[in-house]
Specification:
By secondary structure, the protein is an all-beta fold. The chain has one domain. About 5% of the residues lie in helices and about 55% in strands. The chain contains 1 helix and 15 strands, in the order βαββββββββββββββ. Strands 1, 4, 5, 6, 7, 8, 13, 14 and 15 form a 9-stranded antiparallel sheet that branches. It has a two-stranded antiparallel ribbon with strand order 2-3. It has a two-stranded antiparallel sheet with strand order 9-12. β13 and β14 form a beta hairpin. The two termini are about 40 Å apart.
Length: about 230
């Protein structure tokens, strides 16, 4: 705390999980079927099917640095505040129990796990607070990453080609919130998320089989959203 109104912090953390239980991604099974023969079975109709049970995939290692800064000061309009927090990832890797070899999903899609971890995420919020109400404006940022490989048709040659190394651009959104305390027992709040109606960038490192072309973990699929709420205390 270099000043009574200012607090800054930086934390290093590291997590190592032994005997992690997850499912092998279907992309990894299809990419190397010889190494995943146990994931193919014949169903009741004697058709070949893919079997993806929960298994011990080995170890998960993640590490990073959490950054935070908070500043507050009184003014004629109320208490002004600024809060910034972010995480810079240093490591994110998985090991397979069968091979003990590590593969990383840091900043790029990992076909073995079907995941991708952007290297940096942050949120910055400016706020003003009075006795009965609080208003804030926030900006959220997710860094770019290397997308999953995709087979696509070249419109010039009309041949199917594998597109690899494609960069998914960074994603930035703005949020605004307001909170009003009508009484000690009742308060009202409204929030507008993704004010600019920013569309999710095209990404084939998707996190759901029902959604194609977007990553719902690292981007906002729904666009501009309005949330209204009320709390009553008895």
């Amino acid at each position: 705390m270099p000043h009574t109104n200012l607090r800054v912090s930086m934390d290093y953390w590291r997590v190592k999980i032994h005997d992690a239980i997850e499912t092998v991604s279907d992309a990894a099974v299809l990419q190397n079927p010889n190494a995943h023969q146990g994931n193919f079975i014949l169903n009741s109709s004697n058709n070949l099917a893919m079997y993806l049970p929960l298994t011990n995939i080995g170890e998960i290692v993640k590490s990073g640095i959490d950054l935070e800064a908070q500043w507050r000061t009184p003014s004629d309009w109320g208490r002004l505040g600024f809060h910034a927090q972010g995480t810079y990832m240093l490591n994110s890797k998985h090991s397979q129990a069968t091979t003990s070899a590590y593969s990383s999903d840091l900043g790029r899609f990992n076909v073995d796990t079907g995941t991708v971890i952007p290297r940096f995420k942050s949120r910055m919020t400016a706020s003003i607070t009075q006795s009965e109400w609080t208003g804030s404006l926030s900006v959220n940022y997710v860094a770019s990453y290397t997308d999953a490989d995709i087979n696509a048709t070249n419109l010039e040659t009309l041949k199917i080609e594998t597109v690899s190394g494609r960069k998914v651009p960074s994603f930035t959104t703005w949020d605004a919130t307001a909170h009003y305390a009508m009484t000690r027992q009742m308060d009202f709040r409204i929030a507008v998320l993704n004010i600019m109606n920013q569309e999710a960038p095209l990404s084939f490192a998707q996190t759901s089989k029902q959604i194609f072309g977007a990553n719902t973990v690292n981007s906002n699929l729904w666009g501009r959203t309005i949330q209204i709420g009320m709390t009553v205390r008895f």
